[in-house]
Predict the structure.
Amino acid sequence: MLRNYFKLTLFLFILFLGASFGTLAQKYTISGFVYEKGSRETMLAVNVYAAGTTIGTVTNSYGFYSLTLPKGEWEIVFSFVGYQPRSFNINLEKSIGLNVELDPTIELEGVEVYGELSKSSSRSAHMSVVEIPVQQIKTIPALLGEKDALKVIQLMPGVQKGSEGTSGFYVRGGGPDQNLIILDDAPVYNAFHLFGFFSLFNGDAIKSMELTKGGFPARYGGRLSSVLDITMKDGNKEQFSGEAGIGIISSRLVLEGPIQKEKSSFLISARRTYVDVLMRPFMPKDVKGGYFFYDLNAKMNWEINSKNRIYLSGYFGMDKFYGGEEYYRHSTEAGLFWDNATSTIRWNSVISAKLFSNLSLIFSNYRLKIYAMERYQDSNYELSYSSGIRDYGLKYDFSWMPLPSHTVRYGLSSVWHGFTPSAVVLKNNYMNEFKSEINTINTVESGLYVEDEIKIFDRGIVNIGSRLSHHYHKKNQQLNVEPRISGSYFITKDMSAKASYVQMNQHIHLLTNTGIGLPTDLWVPASDLAPSQSSWQGAIGLAKDVPKYSTTVSLEGYYKESKNVLSYREGASFLMIDDPEGANEINWEDNVTSGLGWSYGVELLIHRKSGKLSGWIGYTLSWTQLQFDELNQGRKFYARYDRRHDVSVVGIYELNKGITLSATWVYGTGNALSIPIATYPAWQHVPGESLFNSWYRTVGEYGEKNSFRMAPYHRLDFGIQFHKKADKYERIWEFSAYNVYNRHNPFFYFPEYYEEWTTEGEVISKNKLKQVSLFPFIPSASWSIKF
Amino acid sequence: MFAGFTTIFYTYSCIEDVPDDILPKAEPKLVVESFISPNDTIRVRVCQSLPINYNYYLTSDDHYNEFPPLRDASVSIRNTHTGNPISIPYDSLSGFYVLYPSQFSVEKGQEYELKVNHTELGEALARTRVPSSTPDLLSVKIDTAEVHTYEGVETDYDLVISGIIKDTGGEKNFYRIIFTFYYCYEYDYVYCYTDMVEKLISDTGSDGQELPFTLYIYGYSWQYYKVKILSTDINYYHFHRTLENWSEGNPFVEPTPVYSNIEGGLGIFGSYLEVAF
């Protein structure tokens, strides 16, 4: 099977490469970087094409392009939505380098350019890819005014949110562990603040965001459901600039500027909440406590010469709850914090006009710690619990563009994962010190890939590739071959039919029974008892570009099957947060069970990325089912976030130069839940105890798993921004309203017991089901300034 | 953490009744609970579950009792290998169906079947096999870990119970260690407060090995305590393990149903042996 697969792949490569190399004679290459004028920020996904032909390419993630053309005179056009297109007449007699700057048209008064789309959807081999314009993230109204890139992702078809207000997302029926979130090549393991209500990404330091839901190119691996690739801004190489903002719960600051003009630059972006600081004066002197989170993004880049660049980027963020008090003979202190740190060193090298490479050294660390200290009279008690995951990785990627009809990417990656599921340290006077530590579990995950994006004359484009995935854990090795293919058949100039087929493997699991991104969720490696997850996904679709209106329309259908998806066994919980001492006594592998997953559906997206009125309409019709031998008596059940209908409408309207209006309306079928259909008493047994009643607890009887549907979710948000521009700064006031019509969306349900007296004097014992709604109409205001 | 969330929810959230038309439909079921042991009185609690939005008319005796006992059930027990069913009569004083050791003998290693019939709620059935032997208790120690004082006066102290159980190899074994403590005072009557801590142990992954255990009680100031070490059957263990993990409506956690081995109803029929020390 494996041998046949390799033979087939080799055959296809030889076929396509051979056909293309036959026409190699008398061709030269134009290559270089595309920059934004004013900041000299490299621009990705810029269209570079020969006017009057269909020959072209797009810049890669680092702004590099390479276009090989026959000898002769050519008009080369560089275009990107929202920027003035530029063209160059070139008499091509040898390979040349050409760096280009594009001017943002937004600076031109009264001019609205409806140009080429940034990356023509219909002409791309890829499908199931969503690009989120960063400018739209900053305009869409948000809960408490906190801009959140992941909540904008949730508004895209095929992507569902978890609970209301939270930033966790579910892609095409996959769990939150199946999303790979990478920030400048470094994986982010917990992308959430405040128990999932906000994400790490507020848009200030982000250059681009791209979500891939299916049709994964071979360069991506390690997760089943999605890849969210986030690139940080490089920093302004021309001049010093910045942005500052004050909101209801946090303030933020961005500073960027040249270190050596046009050669190197830096960017620092910081955000911190200040509820704890504001509350401090109102708290009693002997009580301290509070909560804060902060983010710090930093990036430096250095253009060593025209062919080599170095990027150094990092993210550091922390959430911390803390509290303590001193009272009669007692002093207590307790807290919970979790932090993320990522850093990447990247070396870009233009090896030749046709060959580009990037070497990344990657570090990522996620850590959770819970601590409690108590001093009672003359004794001490200290407890700390910690868990986390640490990665050291290397990634070496190459892009080889031998012909306009071929872009070959190949590379390798290897990541050492160090998992610390839990470590407990307990100290008191009697025990001196008690340590119960699980040693770090080490695994190595590697990938080797090759893919070729082939333009088949003027009729289509295909990306064919394969990834060899390797996992090493406790001397056990696992090797998987993952075929990947996606392609487009051009029906007309602006319309194409698309199809894709991919296989994926995932060698790490997230133990969560909430799915909303709580810091207590644990990353653990695949093992014999919890084997690697795997899936295959097929998709077909249509894509239509309407360049005149900067609009793309896509319609896709998909089917996905997954194996070895993980769930807690019924009644199991790995970490009892109230009893961290007990956490180590339970082996997580004994508490989980593996099962199967099926997901299928249809997604429609109408997206206008720029113009006076921009935004999108998204609709998803989907089904997601799971089956575990040990859950629900082995019967299939709907996943909690199975959502039959999901609608998002996002509109941004520039009323005039100084006022921007925005609105969002979302609708979704309610989550599938297990709720108590009845209650009954359960007595804790105490032998020989006559007070048998003392330890009874009211517990719930549950019917078929996830057989109850929450009420549908819908909400309208509205925002208005007032811009005022002066010579050296721009000031923005923003007023927004969350849940404008105050819809009581259910957050959770619980049963409540009461006794009712009838008019006949009878007493009825009764259970009512209560619905809790969390976020009513919430207005907010923020102020920011750019300079 | 959960307490913090609960406070936030109940402070800022809106709570309202769920409309009847989307409520799940369910019928009341028999709820049966009993734990049996050799030389111990058999007590069986029988009541009914209370479905959401179901009207359960209470008699005057049962006002303010969420789960009043069912007094008109037919309850019987039998040894599945040797005996015919023996009826267990209702004891109105305790609210249990009660059978004394002199009337029915529970033996180690034997399997028993409990049957409950009710004219409206149907039949419920469950089986348990009593553990065949108790393990060796290699050591058990109760220490005063530390005496707390304030200005030279003793106030309370920490207790530590530790021990080692030698598991019997070649079979699945389950253990429960219970530390119950009491504080009683007299005011016309004698009133007692009680509380307990417990530890459940399974020999999974440690078959036939020594199983150490430790329980701490911080700031003990009760009047007296009792310690029990039990060897239990699998039903007893799973029931208490899932009851311990019961999330009490934590909105962030997938619900974890409490284990039941009652066919046609809910609840638990388990067995245990007390380990002498």
Notes: Chain B has two helices and 18 strands. The helical segments of chain B are 2-12, 234-244. Residues 27-129 of chain B form a domain with the Immunoglobulin-like fold (CATH 2.60.40).
